[in-house]
């Protein structure tokens, strides 16, 4: 095969690897014809190719896409598992370190919004000491994540999850007393319920089971004490809105519309947060 590139040579005239000029190599790449030392050789369907040609060929092959434009990946739902591991790790830390340290530093309360706004997201990775609280949320996250993460792709799924978590805190900010303290992933989980509803609607699937499940979980928040239905509502609405942007974006300019829609939801949530904080009474220290 004729060489498409000049073949580098050593001082003695022997061919050398262009990536490692100190190594003589009599093995040439089947694509470009350049010498390739053992470290730069890659087995191909026919003969040997150099690492540069393999990389170029890989970039030229379009990646598989999910039905909503994300990168399709085989295997386990990595983002879902990561979120679950973080929640379980924080739950374990709450038992292992001094009492209430985790809650005092990462739980969310509306009156802390202006001074420590990060709590609006960190609280979604905490849970009460009631084992049923984290068990239900993790079970729901596993079921929903297995269905939605492969459909959205990892990045879009993570964005919807985190925006829903933030929206859960915004729901608490808007609808709860200023001294309410909340923890839990249920706002994010309800965002995934909203996402599943939109996806099923887009696919033309049966919505009755999802509606019944949502109704039951929504009712529980009103009849069982210490459940923040406000977080459920905020997460549900935001998750559904983000998914509308993702699921209904036309193929042309899909990425722009999808990420623009998610960004618009975030801006609305930030605007609602700033408005509500501006209405808080001023505290005067005498």
TrEMBL record:
One GO term of the biological process aspect: proteolysis
Gene Ontology terms, MF aspect: serine-type endopeptidase activity
CDD domains membership: Bbox2
Major localisation: membrane
Sequence intervals crossing the membrane: 74-97, 124-145, 157-175, 181-198, 210-227, 233-249, 256-275
Keyword tags: Hydrolase, Membrane, Protease, Transmembrane, Transmembrane helix
InterPro entries xref list: Peptidase_S54_rhomboid_dom (IPR022764), Rhomboid-like_sf (IPR035952), Rhomboid_protease_S54 (IPR050925)
Pfam families: Rhomboid
A Gene Ontology cellular-component term: membrane
Residues annotated as domain Peptidase S54 rhomboid: 115-246
Localisation per UniProt entry: Membrane
Membrane topology per record: Multi-pass membrane protein
Homology family: Belongs to the peptidase S54 family.
Protein name (Swiss-Prot/TrEMBL): Rhomboid family intramembrane serine protease
Biological source species: Arthrobacter psychrochitiniphilus
């Amino acid at each position: 095969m004729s060489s498409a590139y000049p073949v580098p040579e050593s001082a003695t005239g022997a061919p050398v690897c262009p990536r490692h000029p100190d190594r003589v190599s009599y093995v040439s790449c089947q694509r470009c014809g350049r010498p390739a030392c053992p470290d730069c050789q890659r087995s191909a369907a026919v003969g040997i190719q150099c690492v540069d040609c393999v990389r170029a060929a890989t970039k030229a092959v379009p990646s598989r896409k999910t039905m909503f434009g994300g990168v399709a990946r085989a295997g386990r739902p990595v983002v879902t598992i990561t979120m679950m591991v973080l929640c379980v790790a924080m739950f374990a830390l709450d038992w292992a370190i001094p009492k209430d340290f985790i809650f005092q530093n990462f739980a969310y309360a509306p009156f802390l919004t202006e001074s420590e706004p990060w709590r609006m997201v960190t609280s979604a990775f905490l849970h009460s000491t009631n084992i049923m609280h984290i068990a239900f949320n993790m079970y729901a996250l596993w079921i929903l994540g297995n269905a939605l993460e492969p459909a959205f792709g990892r990045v879009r799924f993570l964005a919807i999850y985190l925006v829903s978590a933030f929206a859960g805190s915004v729901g608490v900010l808007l609808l709860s007393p200023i001294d309410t303290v909340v923890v839990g992933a249920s706002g994010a989980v309800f965002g995934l319920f909203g996402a599943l509803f939109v996806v099923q609607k887009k696919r033309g699937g049966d919505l009755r089971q999802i509606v019944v499940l949502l109704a039951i979980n929504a009712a529980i928040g009103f009849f069982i004490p210490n459940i923040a239905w406000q977080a459920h509502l905020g997460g549900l609405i935001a998750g559904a809105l983000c998914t509308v942007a993702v699921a209904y974006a036309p193929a042309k300019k899909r990425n722009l519309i999808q990420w623009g829609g998610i960004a618009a939801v975030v801006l609305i949530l930030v605007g609602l947060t700033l408005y509500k904080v501006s209405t808080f009474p001023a505290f005067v220290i005498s």
